[in-house]
Amino acid sequence: MLRGLARLTLTLVLAASLAGTVLTASRIASDPLVAPYAETTVEQIRAATDRMLAAADTPAVLQARIESRLAEAPRNWMALDSLTDLAIERAIDLPPDLLETIRIKREDDHGLYSQTVSCASCAYDPAQCSLPQVMICQAPIALTPVGDIAGVARAGVAYASGTQVDQIDLALSVVGLGATAAVLASGGTSYTLKAGASLAKLAHRMGRLSPRLIEIALDAAKSGVRWADLPAVRSTQDLARAVHPDALAPLTETVADLSRLTAATDATTALHLLPLIDDAADARRLAQAAEALGPKLVGRAEVLGKARLFRATLHLSQTAWALGAGLVALILSAAGLLAGMIQHALLRRLRTFAKP
Predict the structure, then answer these.
(1) Which end of the chain is more exposed for a tag (fewer CB within 10 A), N or C?
(2) 163: left (phi over 0), alpha (psi -120 to 50) or beta
């Protein structure tokens, strides 16, 4: 009697666990708003990154990262200053010879002759620009509609003459110009879309776009632009007829979220961090980290890397906990039911052997 009641109870628990697990999994699969991960708060992001730094932020790690940045050309003084600030914050004493090297390199890079020569190189080739220089030598044109008009015009001339087209520059110019002319819809305003597209264009010319973001831009150029209509674009009406807004949507969403990152930091910092962004989700997570960490973001990104930094912006949602609890209950009830069946079968076999 008791054994049968226990088996019935386990069967009911198994059925309930199975139903709950299937229901939660179907909600996650059918509703994109019901995600297994949820965004963390500002305090949670700060606490999570501090815990990660405590585990990873050793003197050897910081020293190796600084030496790696010193070997670059041009040197990224935003990253170097953030790393030395992080060493001060964490009370880590850097070797005297490394500090002397930093001082000498800083004087070399910020001297009058070096600044004059490097600014001339930057004006000719953005890939030779340091982050502060690019905002002086390139941004006045690149961040305005003039740069977008020139980008579309260059692509039209190149296409008509059969020469190679910079498809990434074209896609970002179309998005920026389309935002200015209100041809494309964005998740925010035309200003935020234009600002994000211009920043991405500048990053492309500096070689600071991630491979995935480059792929999104190339797909947008191939599928979102009517190439045959490109040479005839003379107005916003011509531009509207020459693009497929739906095909440009993935790129549009990504660059629109870049403006949130810029608002939380500044354009120079956003340019430095752009290689971490592969899509719109990455842009949102990085912006969330920037809003939580402020000027400490760069140093933490240098040491923790993309994966750990982004992990700090997410935590398991209630839906994920419900799914996990359902799976655990399902496994336990199934194991209990299976154990009961095995026990019952063994007892029957023993009784059979015990008969004369």
Answers:
(1) C
(2) beta
Every domain of the chain and the residues it spans: 2-36+322-354, 42-122, 140-278
d(CA 165, CA 171): 11
Element (H, E) at 100: helix 96-110
Structure token pair of residue 2: 């008791």
Phi-psi region of 31 (alpha: psi -120 to 50; beta: other; left: phi over 0): beta
- Is residue 32's pLDDT more than 50? no
For the chain, helix (H) and strand (E) counts, in that order, are: 18, 2
Q: Report the distance separating Cα 184 and Cα 255, nearest Å.
A: 12
Question: Tell me, what's the pLDDT at 343?
Answer: 62
Q: What is the pLDDT of residue 202?
A: 86
State the virtual CA torsion across 32, 36, 40, 45 in degrees, nearest 10: -120
Per-residue pLDDT tens for 242-253?
888 888 888 988
Distance of CA 282 to the CA centre of its chain: 2
